[in-house]
Target: Putative ABC transport system permease protein
Amino acid sequence: MLVYLRLLKESFAFALNALRSNILRTLLSLLGVTIGIFSIIAVLAAVDSLDRKISKDLSGLDKNTIYVLKFSFGPTDVPQWKREQFPNVKYDEYTYLKGAMTDTDELAYQAFVARESIKYDSRTVSDVNMVPSSHEFSDIGAFEFEKGRFYNESEGNSGAKVIVLGNEIAKSLFDDFEPIGKNVRVYGQRFTVIGVLKKQGAALFGDSDDTSAFIPVNFIRQLYGDSNTSLTNVIIFKPVKGVDMGAYKAEISQKLRAYRGLKAGDSDNFFINVFSGFTDLIDGIILNMKFGGWVISLFSLLVGGFGIANIMFVSVKERTNLIGIQKSLGAKNRFILFQFLFEAIILSVIGGMIGLLLVWVIALVLTNVLDFEFVLGMGNVLLGTLLAAIIGLISGILPAISASKLDPVEAIRTGM
Model:
């Protein structure tokens, strides 16, 4: 065991000597490994960071959440001309389904409207994402509050002029002053602030809750009416846990078809979108990104492997005399083999560590510059190091074998 530890120490010294004696040649040869490890780990770190952000953004939503509206979240066989004739879901359909559906934890109604400006005294925040919804929306979205609360059933049903602000909206309007109970102006009317959400951070899909404001949907119904074609409405279902999703979707379809008076031969004039389908689509995109990163990076690692092999063949040639002396003094073939293998692995790992260092620096810079946290996890660091070691092992095996098979007399004579 001590012999191999000493062998590893000597190999490390030879690797460092190779770096010192011809820095430019060695670094250029290691560049392929550095770029390959950088490419793979950078892609994996970016995808992992993206996956973590998506999971955080969507953590409050149940994967079984269902959205019923006139649009499909994904590809559909229904032709466009037919989709354009689909009617909006109506508030009375929401109230009917709320009483008719079984196995339902929460059921909410939301309208998509144009962005608005919110004013408080001399301050104005423009381009605010307005979210008119029924009171159940808070439970489905699992909102967390920094201050105050969401509007209750009575306020929601009456269309009360109350408003819940996203964190950035509240900070822009009130700074560090108390917002609860203050009146803001939106839609030309005064709304009382009853709640402020906790900071969420930038959202990857749609608008962040930080830049949104929530009001009772019945206020919008009173303002625009139920037949306004500029609004898009959605009914949101949160089924109880463990429900048979196929049977639950069939129940929604059957009851909404019956309410709309659709006949047996008529196709649905609405879409039932399950949130898990959206998350599965995102998972597929992330998997493809990882695969693409591996394919691109493997070419760099292949080039890096040739670079390591080149260094090791040169090293064998330069140390032929030394190899002959070692073998004449009793060094076995496997000792010479391991010596050069360890050296190749150490050189490759040095190239890999440079690549990992570059990923860490770039992740640190981007995290500070952007409102997005790039994370280089320990798992990716270990993976990068292992890959570099494997590349070194594969690249160094032929030079190491050639060195171990040298005849000691011929090696000494060649070195002289």
